[in-house]
Amino acid sequence: MSTIVNREKTEFLYQQVAQLIREMKAQNTLQAGQKLPSLRNMAAKLNVSIPTVKQAYLELEQQGLIEAKSKSGYFLKAMDSQYDKPKRRRLSSQPIAVNKQSLIEQVYEAIHRKGVIPFGIANPIAACSTDKALARTMRRVMTMSGHQGINYGAMDGFAPLKKQLIYRYLDVGIGVDFDELIITNGAQEALAIALQCVAKPGDVIAIESPTYFGIIELIENLGLKAIEIPICSEKGIWLEDLSNALQQHTITACVFSTALNNPVGSLMPEQNRADLVALLESHDVVLIEDDVYGDLYFNGPRGKPAQYYSKKGLVISCASFSKTAAPSYRIGWLIAGRYAQKALGLKRAFSCSSPLLNQWALSEFLASGDYDRNLVKLRQILRSNKERMIHFVLQHFPAGTCVSDPQGGCVLWVEFPAGIDATALFHLALMHNISITPGSMFSASNKYQRCVRLSYGLPWRDEVERALIKLGELAASLQMKKQSAT
Ligand SMILES: Cc1ncc(COP(=O)(O)O)c(C=O)c1O
C-alpha cells in the first residue's frame, strides 16, 4: 500500500488517503461494516503521518461514508448516508379498533419452521448467544437452590434480581423503590399489566406508527382503541402530531419505545424525550415506555429512559431480558410507580409469580459481569450485521427501495417501490425457506403494505447473503408481474 500515496501529486495527502478508501470500498476490498485500521496502523501502512489519516477519516465521516464509534474506532458504513430512507406516512387521525391476529399467526408459524432463514424474528441474541454462560450459571443455581428452587417465588419477583435491576437504573440516574419494581413474564406481561393499570375497554391508546405488533395485539385483546402517531425513522415520535392528537381526542395512555423503536430503530434525542414527557404530563396522559431494546444502542452512552424526565410520576417503564440474554426465560419487569399496588394485584391474578430459577440465574448472570460482557460483544456484532444487511439490500433489491438506518436493535425497515406487496412477498419467500415480517403487521390500520421488517439478529453466514439476494430477486419478480398485468 505504501506506494499508492504520491507526494508529487497536487492533491493533499489526506485527500489521497480518503480517495484510496473510497476506491477500496467501491472494489469491495473493504466491506460494509468492516473496521478500518487504526490511525496509527493506517499511517504506518501508507507512510504518512497520523494527523493526515485523521483528516482523511474526518472527511469520510462528514461525507457519511464511515462512522466513528466511541472506544471502537472507525467503521465503514453500508452506503453514503444519503441513501433513501422510508418516508413519513399520512395516517388516519381517528382512533380505530384493530384486528391483526391471522397474519401474526402465520408469521409465527413461519419462524419456527426448520431450515428457514429467520429474517422474520427479532431475536438479537442469536447473533451472539449467551447459551453456554447461562447454562453454566443455571447449573450452579439448580445445585444451590435446593428446595427453594421448586417453591413458589415472591409475587413481585426474586429480591436479588430486583436489587440488581435497581442498581443498574442508578447508572441512568433513576432511583427505583424496591416496591415499585415488579418482575413479570417477559415485557409482554409487563405491558399488559401497565395498560390494565391505567385503561379500561374502549379507551384510546396512542401508539407509534409503525410499532411492534405485540402492542397492537394487546390493544385488540383488551378491547382498547388505537390512534397511530407517525414516527421519524431517526428521531422517533413527531411531537407536533402527538400534540394535535392530544388536542383532538381523549387519550388515556401512550405506548412508545423512545429508545429504539421496533421496527424502525429510531432513537429519540434526549431533549425530545424530555419534551415528550412534559407534553404528556401537561395533559395528564400516562406514558408506558417499552424499553426492551434500550440496552442495544450502537452509539453510547445509553440515553436516559423517559422515566428520568417524569415530574408527575405518569411514566411506567417496561423491559425484559428477552433481547439481551434469553427470550425463553420469559423474564421482564415493570416500574409501576404510583400504580404499583394495582400492578401487583394484576400480576397475582394473571400468573402469581414468574419462574424463580430463571430469575435466580439471571441475577447471578448480572452479578458475575457476564451479562455486560456479552452485551458489549452483541452490540458490536449487531452493528456490523446492520451495515452488511443495508449493503445487500441496496445492492440487490429493486431500484427505489428505501431502508432505515437503525440506531440500535436488530431490525431493518425496508420500503419497496410501487408494485411490490409485502404480504405476497412473505408467502413467496417462505416457499424458498426465507421468513420475513410483512409491514402491515406494524400498523393498526394496515398501512405499510410495501414494507417489510428484516432481522439482522443472526449469525452472519454465506447463506444469509444468498437469502438476501434471493429476496431481492423475488421482490423484482413480483414487481414485473404487476407491471405486465397493468
Ligand atoms: C418492542 C417490543 N416490545 C415488547 C416485546 C415483548 O418482549 P418479551 O419477549 O420480553 O415479552 C418485544 C418482543 O419482540 C418487542 O419487540
TrEMBL record:
Entries under CDD domains matching the protein: AAT_like (cd00609), WHTH_GntR (cd07377)
Keyword Transferase attached: yes
Pfam families reported in the protein's UniProt record: Aminotran_1_2, GntR
GO molecular function: DNA binding; DNA-binding transcription factor activity; pyridoxal phosphate binding; transaminase activity
Keyword DNA-binding: yes
Family under the similarity heading: In the C-terminal section; belongs to the class-I pyridoxal-phosphate-dependent aminotransferase family.
The protein's name: Aminotransferase
Organism whose genome encodes this protein: Pseudoalteromonas ulvae
Lineage of source species: Bacteria, Pseudomonadati, Pseudomonadota, Gammaproteobacteria, Alteromonadales
